[in-house]
């Protein structure tokens, strides 16, 4: 019998910038009881917990941090250091109307997409140093040893034993919303919510990233089938790398 598991998730709609991929959050809080707070996102001083994984066949990096699920940080600067490490500066997104950004008061994994600057070979082993306000953290990213991915195709990667990231491509204003996640053996199915028929979406093609926490171990699931929503009327099965 398929096993259904609740998913804690965050979604960020992102667009390509000069050196990095950046965007603003469009997902919901992981707990239905979480309500938006009037407080702006807070970046604490000290050590930053950060993890990373390869997406898009080793051409994009997903950085995962913890914080408000509706205020996903963006990568504002990405540079290669003299020692070969990758330095990434994260900053909080700004409200589109210029007002102070309100954030939910939950604590959830958030994925930020980072593009590769000149001097970095796609999929190479990397040391990554991340600065976020007054906080600083680092993580090691092993060389990508998965399968090649066609342009604008979805891809997924395990970040730790119970967390994976997924990138899909489509309208930046209509990111997919997860309805359910089921697993049988080493295969899982991720079903997206069917959007309203009158939903208005921008006509761009942008990567939309999700951070998904499950009760299953990374070793348990090798593939995920994406189905439903506006993008996967025809199901697509992809490996979860890592």
Tell me what the structure shows:
The chain is mainly beta and 242 residues long. It has one domain. It is built from no helices and 20 strands. The strands form four sheets. A ten-stranded mixed beta sheet has the order 1-16-17-19-20-14-15-18-2-3, with no helix packed on it. Strands 5-13-12-9-8 form a five-stranded mixed beta sheet, with no helix packed on it. Strands 6-7-11 form a three-stranded antiparallel beta sheet, with no helix packed on it. The two termini are 26 Å apart.
Short description:
Helices cover 0% and strands 50% of the residues. With 242 residues, the chain is mostly beta strands.
Order of helices and strands: EEEEEEEEEEEEEEEEEEEE
- Tell me the fraction of residues in β-strands, as a range: over 45%
Number of domains as seen in the coordinates = 1
How are the strands of the largest sheet arranged?
1-16-17-19-20-14-15-18-2-3
Count of DSSP H/I helices:
0
> Helicity level, as a percent range?
under 10%
Structural class: mainly beta
Cα(first) to Cα(last) distance is 26 Å
- The chain-level mean pLDDT equals 85
Shape: globular
Radius of gyration: 17 Å
Summarize the main sheet: 10 strands, mixed
- The count of DSSP E runs of length 2 or more, i.e. the number of strands, is 20
**Unreliably modeled segments:** 13-40
């Amino acid at each position: 019998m398929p096993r259904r598991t609740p998913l804690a998730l965050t979604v960020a709609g992102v667009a390509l910038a000069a050196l990095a991929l950046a965007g603003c959050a469009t997902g919901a809080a992981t707990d239905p009881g979480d309500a938006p707070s009037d407080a702006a996102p807070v970046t604490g001083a000290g050590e930053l917990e950060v993890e990373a994984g390869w997406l898009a066949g080793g051409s994009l990096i997903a950085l995962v941090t913890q914080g408000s699920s509706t205020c996903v940080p963006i990568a504002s600067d990405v540079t290669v250091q003299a020692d070969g490490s990758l330095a990434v500066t994260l900053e909080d997104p700004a409200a589109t109307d210029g007002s102070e950004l309100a954030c939910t008061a939950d604590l959830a994994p958030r994925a930020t997409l980072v593009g590769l600057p000149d001097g970095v070979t796609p999929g190479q082993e990397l040391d990554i140093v991340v600065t976020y306000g007054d906080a600083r953290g680092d993580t090691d990213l092993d060389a990508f040893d998965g399968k090649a991915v066609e342009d604008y195709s979805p891809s997924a990667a395990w970040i730790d034993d119970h967390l994976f990231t997924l990138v899909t491509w489509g309208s930046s204003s209509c990111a997919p919303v997860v309805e359910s996640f089921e697993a049988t053996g080493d295969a899982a199915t991720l079903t997206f919510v069917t959007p309203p028929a009158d939903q208005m979406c921008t006509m761009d093609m942008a990567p939309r990233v999700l951070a998904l926490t499950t009760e299953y171990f990374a070793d348990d699931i090798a593939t995920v089938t994406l189905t439903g929503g506006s993008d996967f009327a025809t199901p697509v099965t992809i490996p979860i790398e890592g």
